[in-house]
Write a structure and sequence with these properties.
Blueprint (H helix, E strand, L loop, with lengths): L6 H12 L2 H16 E2 L21 E3 L5 E5 L6 E3 L12 E3 L4 E4 L13 E3 L4 E4 L13 E3 L4 E5 L12 E3 L4 E5 L19 E3 L3 E2 L2 E2 L8
Parallel strand pairs: 3-5, 4-6, 5-7, 6-8, 7-9, 8-10, 9-11, 10-12, 12-13
Antiparallel strand pairs: 1-4, 2-3, 14-15
Bound molecules: 2-acetamido-2-deoxy-beta-D-glucopyranose (NAG) (2 copies).
The site of one 2-acetamido-2-deoxy-beta-D-glucopyranose has 4 residues, from loops.
Length: 216
């Protein structure tokens, strides 16, 4: 074969190798969500996995480096489970999935979203515990989990979230006592209302009192 005949092949190979792998893996992560959910309103119709990155997909926002920074799917009539792949979106700042019909657990992999500022999962049908891995989200300012069916204790580790400004865990089925340390000391009862098995922060002397009632 003449040498010139190899040029198109070499050009094709080098352009494939130069493609930003990170952008593709973020598209793959989002596409895993599309495959997992039921989408009667076709809000995810533009999510085409053959595109080089997900930055032109509706409800997805990227930064100048084509990394995903926002996912805006509030009130989108979606149902199904949240996928662990979402935890790969390392530059994601806003995960807005409120007012849908998501079921199942909050994936502990969401603790990998190290740029996250806002996690809005309120008004769904999520079950299971609040993952303690969320305590790794050191930039988190808004954590709204209200109006789901979450159970278990509020992980004490979450009090480490020093930037947390808004917390709403109301209208769930959480149990145990409300942690009072760290950033949680500024939250009032309004953040925890209507969890029938959750007990207020009770202090006896300066030792936290925990009734030790069954909590699952
Ligand atoms: C949650 O599920 C119940 C049925 O178990 C349903 O009646 C309700 O509408 C659902 N809530 C949301 C927010 O989808
Ligand atoms: C949390 O949400 C509930 C129900 O939507 C609301 O009543 C409550 O005021 C909210 N709390 C805060 C602190 O925003």
């Amino acid at each position: 074969m003449a040498t010139w005949a190899l040029f198109p092949l070499i050009a094709l190979l080098s352009s494939t190798l130069a493609a930003p792998a990170a952008a593709n893996s973020e598209g793959d992560a989002l596409y895993a969500l599309r495959r997992a959910v039921v989408d009667p309103g076709n809000v995810l119709q533009s999510w085409d996995p053959t595109l080089v990155d997900p930055c032109t997909w509706f409800h997805v926002t990227c930064d100048h480096d084509n990394r995903v920074t926002r996912l805006d799917l509030g009130n989108a009539k979606l149902s199904g489970k949240l996928v662990p792949e979402l935890g790969k979106l390392e530059h994601l700042q806003y995960l807005e999935l409120y007012m849908n019909d998501f079921v199942g657990h909050i994936p502990e992999e969401l603790g990998g979203l190290k740029s996250l500022v806002s996690l809005d999962l309120f008004h769904n049908n999520l079950t299971g515990p609040i993952p303690s891995s969320l305590s790794k989200l050191s930039n988190l300012k808004f954590l709204r989990l209200n109006n789901n069916k979450l159970t278990g204790r509020i992980p004490r580790e979450l009090t480490k979230l020093g930037n947390l400004k808004i917390l709403n865990a109301s209208n769930n089925n959480l149990c145990g006592t409300i942690p009072v340390a760290g950033s949680f000391s500024k939250f009032t009862e309004q953040s925890f209302v209507n969890n029938p098995r959750l007990e207020g922060p009770e202090l006896i002397g300066f030792v936290r009192y925990d009734s030790g009632r069954d909590c699952n």
